[in-house]
Amino acid sequence: MSDLTTTRARVWALERRDGQVMGFTDHDRDLAFDGLVFRAGTGMSASAIVQATGLAVDNTEAVGALSDAGLREADILAGRYDDAALTIWEVDWRDVTWRRVLFRGSLGEITRAGGAFRAELRGLTEPLSKRGGRVFTAVCPAVLGDADCGFDLAQAGFFAEVELRVVAEAGAILTLPELPEFAAGWFTDGHLRITSGAAAGLSAQVRRDEITEGARILHLWAAPGAAPVVGDRVRITAGCDKRFETCRLKFLNQLNFRGFPHLPSDDWLIATPRVEG
């Protein structure tokens, strides 16, 4: 790395959860390495990076202008950059093979003001600051389909891919084909992911699933950050209310149930002997 600070620039590689990778630099021309072009003129900059030894959390932030050439406000509002992976290098712009990693982590809270954004950057040690431990409850704490659950949601009968017929309430209520092979309520507490159109890659949780007049209507807990339109394709997966009966009867997965269905309730804990005359 050159000792002359005037030959140094910073570059950012940002990878969203949908797999899209974007590159930015504060240099006055584009730079490229590792198969990625880092675009100049995006208005991106970063405050001083504070790093410490041990398990201390790296602390920094990035700021930039909202523009079509860089980060678009619509994508930020849609949540496409939530928890996006981020790597920051310092490079010699004359020869980018001379570079070093300054920061590796993810985007945290993003705020907007005056046509610009400010994003908190969270280091790799951020998860270590969270409290851990197992909670003993009657319901299952696992997420359907994750490693603890062990259920394969890709098997037939537990997902469907269809086109939207009607979109209402800014995307919070979606009408699909009837899908008679699935019972009413089959997708309640399930997951919906938009796979085509401008909102592709966004997802939401299903609050209620009902069948009416030859159609299936899904009520979401919250509308996606960008509303889908009629004709967009979605993938929906079966829902689980995390009860033992559901795990056993709906998914035949009772051996992987992570809850404690026979745990005494609060009423049992405060029960007292009853005296009868």
UniProtKB/TrEMBL annotation:
Pfam families reported for this sequence: Phage_BR0599 (PF09356), Phage_phiJL001_Gp84_N (PF09931)
Organism: Pararhodobacter oceanensis
Alphabetical list of InterPro entries matching this protein: Phage_phiJL001_Gp84, Phage_phiJL001_Gp84_C
Name by which UniProt lists this protein: Bacteriophage phiJL001 Gp84 C-terminal domain-containing protein
Domain Bacteriophage phiJL001 Gp84 C-terminal: 185-267
